[in-house]
Amino acid sequence: MEDKKTRFTQAIWHITQVLHDAESLDNGLSESLDIIIGALRSEAGSIWLLDEESDRIYPVYHHGPVDISGITIENGQGIAGSVVQSGESVIVEDALADPRFTHSVDDETEFMTKTLVCVPLKSPEGTVGCIQVINRVDGGSYDREDLALCETMAALATAAMEEKGFLFMPNEEKEILISLRNVTKDFPSGDGVAHVLKGVNLDVYKNEFLVVLGESGCGKSTMVNIIGGMDFLTDGELIINGVDFSRPTDQELTNFRRNSLGFVFQSYNLMPNLTALENVQFIAEIAPDPMPAEEAIAKVGLTERAGNYPSALSGGQQQRVAIARAVVKRPQIIFADEPTAALDYETSIEVLSVFEDIKAQVGTTIMMITHNPEIAKMADRVIKIRNGRVSSIKVNLHPLSARELSW
Questions:
Q1: Cβ(50)–Cβ(126) under 8 Å?
Q2: N or C: less crowded end of the chain, CB within 10 Å?
Q3: SS3 for 387?
């Protein structure tokens, strides 16, 4: 059986390689956090970075069941803030009994921080952030060896940030559009029950590009279907624009889908007997405040093909019509489920560029499910679903454009 010393040595080697080889330091730091959490056999962890202008710290990379990506803490407040301000590492054996512990996040969820280790990220100019690792899976406390491993990771991470010229520019504060709290979903399965969602906690912000990653069967599509009113949660709370949608009426669902949502799927679902423009006009006619169908077609670059039927369009062009059909309603959010899965690379980039433009020009929130981790590099945030829960959240400090992606 692998001993602790061997496990920690392998973790340090792995982190060193990841930080050295990562094309994006965002990805390198996020992956390093996953490695350290695994090596310490912990439930959660986060990397916080300091914004000197506001003197606040932000959780930029997070792994665990609680969405803390919208939280900021004043430097010096809480355990993370005190570590950043003092530059001193700490082991906390009982977080709830620690006067520095700010447990407001936990009030909204069932997750409880019991014990943690927190170490500063120190550069020659001063402390730039900290790393927190929370709750050993076996329920035990952290020890000096665990602390030393975290401090080694912190040193490696800070060195990589200096070497690669890492610049932390915090995203502006976001307004919450959708909030899920302890959302569960059960399905009948044979003689029993399949627990597909097991307590999802997530906030979705206005005008963000959110990518959802996860293996088949992890629950990501079920989560999006519940938000989109195509399925219903078993338990928990779903708040949309400040309104409780946990148990919506049929009329509330109809109005929400008609007025606020756009859908783009892997299969284009165009009506074959209508032209591209007519497919978009059909949706515009049932929306309360649509943009002109011609404008929506122009936004996806298909003005010259507006009179063509779907059979005369390529796969990428059909998907762009599907995006125009979604955006013509001026929706608050567009759900895109594997929109590039059936497309080749060049066509995928064209389609992703359209999503990019829609977010910038219209201000629509885009929530995209994909199996392609490369697409995650253009997102504002990346959510990973595993076994029916949010397993990690990463804020992309420097999202790539669609044209910069490669696979």
A1: no
A2: N
A3: coil
Q: For 93-106, what is the mean pLDDT?
A: 66
Q: Please, are residues 396 and 379 in contact by the beta-carbon 8 Å criterion?
A: yes
Q: b/e string for 226-265 if b means 16 or more Cβ within 10 A?
A: bbbbebebeebbbbbeeeebbebeeeeeeebbeebbbbbb
Chain position carrying tokens 């991470």: 157
Tell me, what CATH number does 383's domain have? 3.40.50.300
Residue 171 covered by a domain: no
| pTM check: above 0.90 | no
In a domain, 396, yes or no: yes
CATH number of the domain enclosing 31: 3.30.450.40
CA proximity to 260, closest of 375, 172, 370, 367: 367
| Upper half-sphere CA count for residue 230 (Cβ side, 13 Å) | 10
Q: How far is CA 310 from the centre of its chain?
A: 33
Average model confidence (pLDDT) across the chain: 88
223: number of Cβ within 10 Å:
27
Q: What is the pLDDT of residue 173?
A: 66
What is the C-alpha separation between 137 and 139, in angstroms, rounded?
A: 5
pLDDT digits (tens, 9 = 90+) for 284-303: 998 888 999 999 999 999 99
Each residue of 147-167: b (16+ CB within 10 Å) or e? bebbbbbbebbbebbeeeebe
Q: Are residues 64 and 121 in the same domain?
A: yes
Residue 169 resides in a domain: no
User: Domain residues for 108?
Assistant: 4-163
Do 226 and 361 fall into the same domain? yes
- The token pair at 168 is 């932390």
Question: Could you tell me if 97 and 54 are in contact, meaning their C-beta atoms sit under 8 angstroms apart?
Answer: no
Q: How do strand 333-337 and strand 365-369 relate by DSSP bridges? A: parallel
Number of structural domains found in the chain:
2
Determine, yes or no, domain membership for 262. Answer: yes
Residues 145 and 181 in one domain: no
What sign for the dihedral angle of Cα 358, 359, 362, 368? Answer: positive
Assigned token pair, 76: 């010096």
